[in-house]
Amino acid sequence: MKKISIILCCLLGWQSQAQNTQISPDGNVKVTFELNPSGKPFYKIWYKNQEVIKQSYMGLELKNTTDLIADFKVIKEKKSTFDETWQPVWGEESHIRNHYNELLVSLHQKTSDRFMNIRFRVYNDGVGFRYEFPEQKHLTYFTVVEEWTEFAMTGDHTAWWIVGDYDTQEYDYTESKLSQIRLLNQGAINHNASQTPFSRTGVQTSLMMKTDSGLYINLHEAALVDYSCMHLNLNDSNFVFQSHLTPDATGDKAHLQAPCHTPWRTIMVSDDARNILASRLILNLNDPCAYEDTSWIKPVKYIGVWWEMISGKSSWAYTNELPSIQLDKVDYTKLKTNGKHAANNQNVRKYIDFAAQHGFDQVLVEGWNVGWEDWFGHKKDYVFDFVTPYPDFDLKALNEYAHSKGVKLMMHHETSSSVRNYERHMHKAYQLMNDYGYNAVKSGYVGDIVPRGEHHYGQWLVNHYLYAVTEAAKYKIMVNAHEAVRPTGLCRTYPNLIGNESARGTEFESFGGNKPFHTTVLPFTRLQGGPMDYTPGIFETQIWNVNPDNGSYARSTLAKQLALYLTMYSPLQMAADLPENYSKYLDAFQFIKDVPVDWQKSIYLEAEPGRYITVARKDKHSNDWYIGCTANENGHTSKLKLNFLDKNKKYEATIYADAKNAHYKNNPKAYTITKRKVDANTTLTLVAKEGGGYAVSIKEIK
Ligand code: NOJ
Ligand code: CA
């Protein structure tokens, strides 16, 4: 047999070295690594003996020097096993197991006398691999022209995708076959303040797919640090995805200095969609917590002076009197207010009172600081100073008032993407937060990046977002960044990164609406990298009842808005609607008041991307459980066995469900609330109507 294969190899001119294989701890996932006759590295992946990734080449094209693509020889391979359970500061569960088998392949490139390692980690639910560049003589500083990592699919899978773009992820998802991406690309692009689509077959990660044989595959990356964000470009003639990095202003994709490594490229796979949601592969591939003391990092439930601006009822800006603002020249005290400025003393006090009355931790106030009159669209450099309040916002008095009621104000730093300006002011801005007792900031990156020509997802910006988080940590400040690069699990290492937007959030319900299936896709895609500040809780889904000039409506029933607090996991949850809208539905609002934002355990009960997601979570600090289900436009019926409840305990369930005649379009606010006793033997049959959902609180009877 050996003889035959040697002869075959010679006939084919194949000088391949031994194939290196590693399998997952349960044996279901297998990865192989090989070199082709030209010394080009490639890998393949199987799940339960089904091919998941066909032969896929790996390598990097470098600037003005030999590429790291071919001419390699394997000089060493090392296999190892790792098994550890760690405790996140906050999360979907209190303990996370990190169990993998590793394959480390050390390569030598003959012509250039360079070394490169490829490290694979094989988990029960997928694979991560990265390129590593050890310290060496002939590779020190180098510039990446492109990373050429392939992900070769086995067929024309169904995908849930958004358009590949260097500057925004605020797109609606499209469900289609891979072969239809090119055709549907143009229709999938909606306007954004900054956007740079790069190809008709370009898509973003995390990309969710399903094969005809029922395998669920997810492609993403983990631990994106000092490198640019990876997109995927599809060759639709053979279904091979090619990595496509975000360029900098000069077109280069990454500037590296050995020793260093790339982020992990991740491939999750399962024959059960629930396992994709329950996977902790991305978090596990990130480094452990970098901070010694994390006692200052706390989950947050908040309301905000926000939706009234998003809906167009009120404004961030103080005045309409000037055609443009030059911060160092304007004297706001001499200007008339426009009468719509929401961040004024009286209004903010109203929100503080409401937060205190209903037990919220914080009140976000946007539009509190000078500069909002012409804040985006001009690539303006000195747009905000992050420290000077408008004349009608008394920084000291409002913070004191909030603190006297046990509430904190949440800081807002909209950078308008003038990032150099933000870095210039950041320390004073954080210091001001310390001085007045703020411990969380929502930041934002609307519009094109300054320095001009840079992109939101390039290496320079990737470094900035992390810098903002690690500098904030020095002031014990938690960060929730909007429009920043999509997360890749860095919240494990830097848990003061308590949220990101980085996708199309609830704000778009006011800008024309999100597709009804949107929130049945996001947990499979965007949320793989970390929590999203989705800002749920819109009870008045017909926005014209908030602002008569706004004809938009949320593609959701009211009950589904409650379910989002479960299905869209985040340690930072907003109740986004106006206090007066909650006051109209206080019985349903009770669920938002009750629902925890930190969990001991999470069990995905049902899941199908783009269709429905049902999750049960146990409160981190009690024996209470909460269930949420969101459905697409066709609705969903669940039969839920509550056998996860403690066998020795009795519980009272409160079920917040769509009424029989509820529908996201024409009857969104019809809901029912029922109470019943339940235990571990109970089966609940619950219905999410079209574009609807349900939420259940299950409290222990003591
Ligand atoms: C976009 C953010 O997503 C939104 O939440 C914020 O209110 C505006 N930018 C203004 O900063
Ligand atoms: Ca946004």
TrEMBL record:
Its cofactor is Ca(2+). Residues 1-18 form the signal peptide. One of its GO terms (molecular function) is glucan 1,4-alpha-glucosidase activity. Residues 24-288 form the Glycosyl-hydrolase 97 N-terminal domain. Coiled coil: none annotated. Pfam families: GH97_C (PF14509), GH97_N (PF14508), Glyco_hydro_97 (PF10566). InterPro entries: Aldolase_TIM, GH, GH-type_carb-bd, GH97_C, GH97_catalytic, GH97_N, Glycosyl_hydrolase_97. Keywords: Calcium, Glycosidase, Hydrolase, Signal. Monomer. This is Glucan 1,4-alpha-glucosidase SusB. It comes from Capnocytophaga canis. The gene is susB.
